[in-house]
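[job 4417] fold queue: 2 targets
>>> target A
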Amino acid sequence: MSEGSRIGSSLVQVENISFAYKVNEKTEIPVFENISLSIREGEYVAIIGHNGCGKSTLAKHLNGILLPKSGRVFVAGMDTRDKSLKKEIRKRVGMVFQSPDNQIVATMVEDDVAFGLENLEVPEDEMRQRVKEALEMVGMTEFRHRPPHFLSGGQKQRVAIAGILAMRPECLVLDEATSMLDSIGRQEVLTVIDRLHDEGMAIVAITHHMSEVVRADRVLVMEAGRIVMEGTPREVFANRERLQELQLDAPEASQISQRIHERRPYFPGNLIHPKEVVDAVLEANRTKRQVRKG
């Protein structure tokens, strides 16, 4: 599916929101002020920034877990401040958190996936079908009768994602959902996310793994409660000096590409995928051999 056909109209609209955590009745800790952004249907947006910059707090505003102090958030035109729309909004935008263990509530996998549907009072026959489909989507059908505490971290996170998918959302928000997983678990979850995105689901990923960021259509970079950079992964990672100022790394492929470019100016310095770097090296070697033969 091409990017043009995949990305549609605005799904989540954030309009000039500000937020502060209350310490007590007289003291607040401001997190951000006047942030605006839009998440479109089928779009994959990565949000990065140092710890404490406000990215996780922002993520929790996207489906009304947190409400802004000022400004508004709309999900498919619904104001998150409207309590009567809370269930409908969270059906549209589902959220997966950092720790798999903190999201599991049942003693059997299929019961855990059904938990959200029970809260929505989905009829039993439909619930069974949705649970079956969700487990198939994340490749966990064979574990449906397994106690979740017997699963690996990656498997638990896939179960958490299935619980959200059963509610048939249009957008999946991942708040550092792979940060506590080993490399195998991370890849299991990323494979599911890539497939969901290819099938048209909007993805918002809060992450500090730059190798995950290159999967996105658009990247938002936050610092001290502000969005300070925005663009495609290639555009953002090409701005090497600004990233260094923000104390953020680029993916290994980008770093290698830029280092080779510094020594060999003919080599492209804006590559972000490992395969791109390998292909460029092979092409450079082919060109060198042809020149020698000539």
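>>> target B
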Amino acid sequence: MGKSPLTRIGALLAFALLAVACAPTDCTPGLGGENVGWAPVSASFAQAAGESTTVFVVSPMDGDLDDLAVLTGQDLGDDERRVKVRALEDFGSGSPRVIWTYPPLGSGTGLEGAFGPPAVSEELGLVFVGGVDGHIYALNAETGEESTGWQRAVRNDPSLEPQPIVGAPVLAELVNSETGPATLLLVVSEDGNLYAFNAGTGDELPWSPFRTEDKIWSTPVVQNGVAYFGSHDHFVYAVDLRDGHQVWRYETGGAVVGNPLLFAGKLFIGSFDRNLYALDADDGELEWAFASQNWFWAEPVTDGETIFAPSMDGYVYALSPQNPPSGEPKEALWRHYMESPIVSTPVLVPLGLVVGAVDGRMRLLSTSPSNLVDGEVISNLPTLEEGEIKAPLVAGAPPNPSLGTELDSLSVIQRYSVFVAGDNGVVRRISVTEGQDKESIWCFDSSIHRQCN
């Protein structure tokens, strides 16, 4: 028997941390470990003052639930180390309250694990979790029940074993001239396929799946009905969601596992050949490539002017999206060393860029043009000592293109905070408020449903 998919993923990350000296052609991911995911976090945000934000986290229960059993009055012996989905009600201060747990406490059941953050549809009232067991769980966002949602294996062939889902599920709005508007759920799998479902019913689209030649860990990004993602087969793909045909594909020198960024007509995506690529979103033509000293795994982000690309060499690179002068290599505007590999997607807040490294170190970096010499550190944020940071960070307020009046209506806490989780399920909401100490607003250990320090 080979190693489990979970062990392979853990082994790959451990190998990646030592991959600086690995030749690009030799850096081929191999998967699995006694790993139950990265405790991914997502949120359904408060829209007005006084409303709560719901935080969703997928993580294992603790190995000793005696105290929680006393608190709840339930026999939880069979829940130990089971992976659960939890919904936390957060008003921005104090400790969040657990609204529901799936599967319920005391059931003795759980998921095998999850790596990608849940996707939330407020319109449908559903939260979608991609499981390592190859299933999608569509749960009622208010109650955690399956009764108004659905659950299914993404691979609709009983003769084939479902393969793990590593990338996050993605919601996409699609307008079809024949059927009208629809909300799709996109799911990528280790079986090498991109699947598309009706998000409300779980019905698979007629053209699904779209097949690549190797595993897919890259979470798709969608624009104008086209999904963009990478594959372990070294290619970046653009697929039309209306009929599933390939618009284009571009070959890199290594596995493409990271999530892409669409901006200014370009697709920015990293590869295990140590390059970040800027491709024309329409035709996949190469605009430029930027080389680092290790793999690009985390998704790049932008503030509308600059691309910020984290690498597993421990650096965050600030890059202009524009093409370099003809014949010249792409150069960074600045770079900042985090002293540990970065696999977690950073987030932008009004004060700058928040970056989390694998060792739990977190920093707020200036993105101001006046500080483009070395990426000045505005503040060192509380270190997440309880676990490694691998899942994407989440800003405390939803991204807003205008960054204007709508953001102004949100509270200071909403605008200036970040959610971060260790891979052991400890979740923090950290303040990054101007003129105040950068500290935890709250800490919650989801493995025991308890506030932590």
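[job 4417] complete. Note on B: Residues 5-16 form the longest helix (12 residues).
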